[in-house]
C-alpha cells in the first residue's frame, strides 16, 4: 500500500452556513487521479482535529496541506499544523492561500510549516509532491517557498498565470463523497441555493493597500464564459441553483467575458454577485449594465476606498477613479437597478494626527452624500490594515510610522492581531482610539439607518424600528455611544457581510 496520501484541510472560516471550499477543491483537482487524497472541511466538522488524526493514525498519510486566509482560519491552521509536527514528525506540511503567501517568513520560521505555495498551486503542488516522492531538486518548481539545507529561505521563480480553461475540472463529485455538496448551497438574499464560484486568478491593478498585489503583481487571467457556464449548468441541472456568488478578486475585468456570460445565463433564472472596480464597470454603457441586470446581476461589490482624490492617489488605485466618478457611478447603478456595494478603507496614514482624523470625517460625509444619491448603495467600512508589499511607497511609510508584523506565528491568533486581520482594529500607530470609535460608531448608526439588504432577516417592522431609532443620530451626526442600535443589532443577530460574507441559511 502507498504511504503517500494527502490531507487537504480547509480551516474553519465562518459560523453558520458554509461555502464550497474552493481553495482546497482546486488543489484537489490538481492531484486528482494522480495521488490519493482526502478533504477535511473545518467548517463542517465539529472537531476537525479528530478527523485529521484518524487519518494520520492509519500511517498512510504523508502530506498535510492547509489553505490559510488571515483571520479566524489561523485558529485551526496554526495549532493543528503544530500538533502534526510534534506528533507525526514525518508528515510533510504545506500551506497555501493568502496568509501563507504574504506571511511566508513567519510561517516557515515557526518550524511547523515545511513548504509554502506562493500564489496558485495548480502546477506547484503536484510538482512538489512528485519531486518529494522522487527525492528531486525543488528549486525548479515555480511558486514555491521553503528553507534549504542551510536554513535559508528560498523563494523560487513566479509562474506566469495559467490559461484558466486548461485547468482540470473541479472534483465536485469527489467532494460530495466527504460532505454533501447540497449543504454548501446556501440561502442568501439572492436566492435559495447560492453557488460560490471562483472564475479567475489575480487582478490587473496594484493598489498599494491590497494583499493580492504582492502575489499577482498586476496580472489577471480568467476562465472563458463558456467554461464557467459548464459548471453553472452542472449545478443548475444537478442541484437547481438559483444564485451565484463570484469570489474572484475582480470578476468584471473583461467586459466581453461578463457580457458573454450574462447572455449565457439569461434564461436560467439565476442571480449573481461579484466584485469589481468602479472605473472598469463605469466603462460599460447603460445598455450593457441593463443586460447584466436582466441576466441576474443584482449587486456588485466595488472598492470605492475613499472619495478623496489625494488619498486615492496615495492608495495607488491606478485607473481613473475619482470622488466625482463614484457619485456619478452610483447614480448610473441606481438607474440600472443594480445595487452597488461600496467598500471604504478608512484610517490611512497621513503627516499629522489632525490630517488622519480630518480624512476620516471627510469620508464619513462623503459616504452620506453617496447614500443621498443612491440610498440602496450598500456601504462596507474597513480600517486600513497594512499588507507587506515590500518596496511600495506606502509600505515604507507605514514602517517609518512604527508599524511591524508579528515575528512569532502564534501571535497572529492573539485577539488583537485577529482584529487586525478582520480590519477592525489595525494596530497602526497613527490611528488613535478616538478615531476608531468615531468610525465604529458612525458604522453602527449607518447600519441602523440603512440596514444591509444582504441580511434578509432584517425587514418589515425590524427595519422600520432600526431606522426610527437611528434617524436623529444620522441626520444630526450624533454618533457616540449608539447603544440602543447595538442592542437591536444584537437581539436580531444582525450580520454585516464584511467578516463572514452574506448572511446565509
Ligand atoms: C471565499 C472567501 C472568504 C470566505 C471563506 C471561504 C472558505 N473557504 O470557507 C469568507 C467570507 C468566510 C471569508 C472571510 C474572510 N476573508 Co476571505 N476571501 C474569500 C475569497 C473571496 C475567495 C477564496 C477562494 O475560495 N479562492 C479560490 C481559490 C481557488 O483560490 P486560492 O484560495 O487563491 O487558492 C489557490 C492558491 O492560493 C493555492 N492555495 C490555496 N490554498 C492552498 C492550500 C494548499 C495545501 C495548496 C497546496 C495550495 C493552496 O492554490 C489554489 C489554486 O491555485 C478570497 C479572495 C479570492 N479571490 O481568493 C478572500 C480573501 C482570501 N479573504 C480575505 C480576508 C482578509 C478575509 C477576512 C480575514 C476578512 C475580511 N474582512 O474579508 C475574513 C475572515 C476569514 C475567516 N473567517 O477566517 C483576503 C485576504 C487578504 C490578505 N490580507 O491576505 C482575500 C484575498 C480577499 C481580499 N481581496 O482582501 N473569505
Ligand atoms: S482592484 Fe481590488 S483586487 Fe485589484 S489590486 Fe486593487 S484592491 Fe486589490
Automatic annotation (TrEMBL):
Transmembrane segments: none annotated. It comes from the Bacteria. GO terms for cellular component: cytosol. Residues 189-416 form the Radical SAM core domain. It holds the Pfam family Radical_SAM. Its cofactor is [4Fe-4S] cluster. Signal peptide: none annotated. The keyword Phosphoprotein does not apply. GO terms for molecular function: 4 iron, 4 sulfur cluster binding; catalytic activity; cobalamin binding; metal ion binding. Keywords: Iron, Iron-sulfur, Metal-binding, Methyltransferase, S-adenosyl-L-methionine, Transferase. InterPro entries: BchE-like, Cobalamin-bd, Elp3/MiaA/NifB-like_rSAM, Methyltransferase_Class_B, rSAM, rSAM_horseshoe, rSAM_sf. The keyword Transferase applies. Residues 5-139 form the B12-binding domain. This is Radical SAM protein. It comes from Flavobacterium cheongpyeongense.
